[in-house]
Amino acid sequence: MPDPKEVILLSESKLRDLSVEFSVNTIKLCENIKGHSSLVNQLERSATSIGANIHEANYAHGKPDFIAKMQIALKECYETEYWLEVFVKSGILDREAAKDIYNQCGAIRRMLIASINTAKENAQG
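Above: the chain sequence. Below: its structure as tokens.
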């Protein structure tokens, strides 16, 4: 049976990789949006902030700092989902065009929640 710390490191590595891929995909999606530069900026900033905070968490000063960085990444994930929904409902993005990015964001969100919960449990025990 693998060491639980190794499992956490593997899942965090996968999370880092997914967040980078998500950032790149979001940037590419935003390149195709004409106009609405202030809204596009908001989406790009929140989407790329997810990965930046996950990356920072790997260099955290202890478990509380790690948890805090991951929680910031989670908040940015929720914000990104908000902007995607605004883009779809306002007609800036077609729902089908946003589907893959939205699904990726949801997968990252679920992984973040699991990582935060695991880190909190490990900090208590």
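The chain has one domain: 4-124.
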